[in-house]
Amino acid sequence: MYLTEEQLSIYKAQGFLVLPEYFSRAEIEVMKAELSGLSVKDSPKRILEKDGKTVRSLHGVHTSNNVFNCLTRHPFIVEPAMQIVGSEVYIYQFKINIKAAFSGDIWKWHQDYIYWRKEDGMPKPQVVNAMCLLDDMNEFNGPLFVIPGSHREEMIDVAVHNSRETSKNVHNSSDSPGWMSSFSANLKYSLNQELITNLVSKYGIAFIKAAAGSVVFFDSNIVHASTNNISPFGRSTVIITYNSIENIPSPVVKPRPDFLVSQDYRPVIPLACDILSEHSLT
Ligand code: 6CS
Ligand code: FE
């Protein structure tokens, strides 16, 4: 399902593109049905909110779950990703951000690429995020906020406050791994208020409002955030990050675990599979 020239130019100009209801309700229900089983397993792949019980995110589960493995290869997602990145792609990162009703916590203002550059040695931002909404995203349930066009600032090199200290604050335990501060509510490379004020006055601010089944492609340098969710409505999303096969990260001193950052550089072959087959689009 390739993007039109107009869609590609919208993506390039604003740094994100919303494709409404790409997947049918039936397909979304198939994916959502997998979440409860995946959420109960205590594993490093499962990150909890500060309350120590609400699931914040699940990482790398596509390698052991057929439904999400299928999603990562779906032509609706892979073909646009290859167009945007300009080459064949491999799956760099797979996560499900749960943003639970009443208790899904904040994602502070940040860019994604700086994490992949500084933590994983990714050479260039020749990479794209594909977010598949498993719930409706609206003004009530902690939607994705974006600063449209801010990707043109390229990587904003923010100073890191003591990341060890940051990771200790998460869950009040001293044994949080160092990478936890890249996934907690106390983000390692978050952008400060002065920066955000300047960027919003330069580019404006928007939020994504879309129904479950929609897909949002967004640039690794677009400045984005989301508030905590105080509504009775969950707002779970699957975010698949596709990196160009021409952009393989250089070795780093402390590589992050492969459930966070895949070392499987095989190009993804787009393949519609029968598990997700009642598309809303003919
Ligand atoms: O460190 C990372 O890889 C992740 N952290 C954030 C805040 N966004 C990008 C990525 O998912
Ligand atoms: Fe992010």
TrEMBL record:
A GO molecular function held by the record: dioxygenase activity
Coiled-coil residues: none
Protein name: Phytanoyl-CoA dioxygenase family protein
Keyword Oxidoreductase set for record: yes
Family annotation (Pfam families): PhyH
Keyword Transcription: no
UniProt keyword terms in alphabetical order: Dioxygenase, Oxidoreductase
